């Protein structure tokens, strides 16, 4: 399917863990752009854990994808036709066009990218939504201070990569949790984490608690929560008095699995009470006003290499469903991207 437009739609609502049968790759004919609209050819598609939630017909902070509808997602694409004064053919832009090779969008919902500033796909990762989420989580939710110990789960993923390096730059001691020795080596040798715990090597919450205590003997002041499960069970036992938890995600539970691995409600509440903790959930949509401040601080760090990052690239939109399901189980290493079309 090289010339024919193609897309991935939601074929069925997952029953528990999502499967390949829940997503369908199909050809379609894109419409012509109307007034104020822009036609794009997709170059990069971002795959993100939140997409799993959109597959369910459940009340959440965003509306679910309908059956037969193109899967939601942010892309970077090349403008092929424009009826909007701010865009011309050849421009590179990012927007929520979805899992599709071609899209028509209102120009007002797109953001033009400057390809000379950074690789354009960085707008989907380190300099985009995941990077902003990390930066807001560390600065505004955890209110991290120099000298504090921070624990960050999914430490080498799109969010964790930036959270760890931003926290380190603030003078924190940073402990990561990641799946496997290779990711942990990367966390300490490339991303500057002071220590990293391999959650595969720790079977349950008690083992995680012991592993965290070993590398954070003075306790944890801030926990950047990305996963839930046994990592949360271990983290909660190591929080210092008046510690803070930024509840960013709980990917271990997104398909309804690992529910027996988290802390029991009473254990969670008792630790919240006796350690006098503050836990705050946040959804990045409420924090977009921080985007310019984030870019001012982090874009130079990316440009001069103080913030490094890794990408997991899958070639071809038809393979996006598999890449997505793999990511939910840790099959990615860094920001998960699909190359949908060639660079101009
Ligand atoms: N609140 C918001 O607005 C917001 C915005 C963006 C992202 N998020 C959340 O932030 C989290 C990270 O997102 P991301 O885009 O950076 O994804 P990511 O970390 O690049 O990919 C997901 C990672 O989750 C880890 N994981 C999966 N199952 C796990 C389990 N059972 N136990 C422990 N870790 C597990 C895997 O890493 P390992 O192999 O290292 O285990 C996997 O690589 C997600 O929960 C996401 O929903 C929230």
UniProtKB/TrEMBL annotation:
Alphabetized Pfam families for the sequence: ADH_N_2, ADH_zinc_N
Domain of life from the UniProt record: Bacteria
Electron transport keyword on record: no
Residue ranges annotated for the Enoyl reductase (ER) domain, each copy included: 18-338
InterPro entries the UniProt entry points to: ADH-like_C, ADH_N_2, ER, GroES-like_sf, MDR_fam, NAD(P)-bd_dom_sf
SMART domains named in the record: PKS_ER
Keywords: Oxidoreductase
Alphabetized GO MF terms: oxidoreductase activity, acting on the CH-CH group of donors, NAD or NADP as acceptor
UniProt key word Isomerase: no
Residue ranges that the Swiss-Prot or TrEMBL entry lists as coiled coil: none
Annotated protein name in UniProt: Enoyl reductase (ER) domain-containing protein
Organism whose genome encodes this protein: Palleronia salina
Taxonomic placement: Bacteria, Pseudomonadati, Pseudomonadota, Alphaproteobacteria, Rhodobacterales
């Amino acid at each position: 399917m090289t010339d024919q437009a193609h897309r991935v739609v939601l074929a069925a609502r997952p029953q528990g863990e999502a499967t390949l049968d829940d997503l369908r790759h199909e050809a379609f004919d894109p419409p012509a752009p109307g007034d104020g609209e822009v036609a794009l050819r997709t170059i990069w598609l971002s795959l993100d854990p939140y997409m799993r939630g959109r597959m369910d017909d459940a009340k959440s902070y965003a509306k679910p994808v309908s059956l037969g509808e193109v899967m939601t997602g942010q892309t970077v694409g090349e403008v092929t036709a424009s009826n909007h004064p701010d865009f011309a053919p050849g421009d590179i832009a990012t927007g929520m066009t979805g899992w599709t090779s071609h899209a028509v969008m209102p120009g007002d919902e797109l953001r033009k990218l400057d390809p000379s500033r950074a690789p354009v796909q960085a707008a989907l990762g380190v300099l985009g939504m995941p990077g902003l989420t990390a930066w807001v989580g560390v600065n505004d939710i955890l209110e991290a201070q120099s000298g504090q110990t921070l624990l960050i789960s999914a430490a080498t993923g799109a969010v964790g990569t930036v959270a760890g390096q931003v926290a380190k730059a603030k003078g924190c001691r940073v402990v990561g949790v990641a799946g496997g020795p290779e990711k942990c080596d990367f966390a300490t040798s490339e991303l500057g984490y002071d220590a990293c715990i391999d959650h595969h090597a720790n079977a349950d919450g008690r083992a995680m608690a012991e592993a965290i205590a070993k590398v954070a003997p003075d306790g944890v002041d801030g926990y950047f929560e990305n996963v839930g499960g046994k990592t949360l069970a271990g983290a909660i036992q190591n929080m210092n008095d008046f510690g803070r938890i930024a509840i960013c995600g709980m990917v271990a539970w997104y398909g309804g699995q690992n529910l027996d691995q988290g802390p029991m409600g009473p254990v969670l509440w008792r630790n919240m009470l006796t350690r006098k903790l503050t836990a705050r959930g946040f959804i990045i949509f409420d924090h977009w006003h921080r985007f310019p401040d984030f870019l001012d601080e982090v874009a130079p760090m990316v440009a001069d290499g103080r913030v490094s990052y890794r990408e997991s690239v899958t070639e071809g939109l038809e393979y996006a469903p598999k890449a997505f399901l793999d990511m939910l189980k840790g099959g990615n290493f860094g920001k998960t991207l699909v190359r949908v079309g060639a660079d101009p």
